[in-house]
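=== RUN LOG ===
request id: a7f3
mode: sequence -> structure
chains: 1
length: 254
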Amino acid sequence: MKLMTCAAAAAAFVLPGAAIAQARPTADSLVQRHIEALGGEQAFAGLNSVQFEGELRFPGDFKLTYKEVRAKEKQASRTEAALQGLTLTQGYDGSSGWRINPFQGRKDAETMSADEARSAADSGSILGALVNAKAEGSVVTYLGREDFDGTDTHKVKVVQKDGDEFVYLLEPETMLAIKMTETRRIRGAQQVTEYELGDYEKVAGVYFPMSIESWQDGQSSQRQRVTIEKATANVPVTPAMFAQPASPSTPTAK
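=== RESULT ===
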C-alpha cells in the first residue's frame, strides 16, 4: 500500500505538467500571441497610416510600379499600379469603393459593387481581419495544426459578420502569418483567393510582409506578386485621397 501511495503521489506531480505542455491552445490565446508578435497594441495605436512602394509582377513577367496608402480611419485605402504611362487605380473611402482601369479602356472611375467594396476594405486594412476580429465582432476558431512547406503551423479561421472567411496559417515560432486563404462571395459567386506572406519588416514598430503572392484557388501557376521596397509610416492623408473622382461633365448638345 505504501508503494502504491508513493506512485500515486509522484503521478500527481508529473501529470499536471505534462497536461499543460500538451494543452491545445485556444483561439484567443493565439490571436493575442499574434498581436504581440506583430508589435503589440501600443505600436498599433501609434500607426495611423502607412504607405508601401514597390513592384507588382503578373504572370508573363509583366512588371508594374506599385504604390499603396492605407489609413486606419475608416480602413480607407488607395492603390496605384502603373505601366507605360497607364495607371490602374483603386480606392476605398470607408463606405464605398471605386476603380479606374485604363488597361480595359476605362478612363473614368467605376463604382465597385458592395461585395467588391467589402473586399477592398479588408485588403486595405492596416491590421487585417485576424487582429480586427474582436473589434469587428468576428468569430475566431482554432482548427489545429497544419503542415505548410514543412512547417507545422497553427491554423486559425476568422468568420466575419457578413459571412466572409479568412483562414490563417501562423508560423509557431514567430506567430506571424505565412499563408492566408480568403473566401467571400462576389456578385453571388464564391471566390477563393490564396496568399503567401513573407519577408516581414518593421514599420514604426509593426511587422508587415514585404512579399505577398496571391492567386485564385486552383490557379497557383497564375500568381501575382507584390514586392515592397519602401514602407513609410504615418504619411499625411486626406479624405480626398480616397474619394471617387468625379466623371468629366458630358458636353451639352448644341
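=== NOTES ===
The radius of gyration is 23 Å.
The first strand starts at residue 49 and ends at 58.
=== END ===
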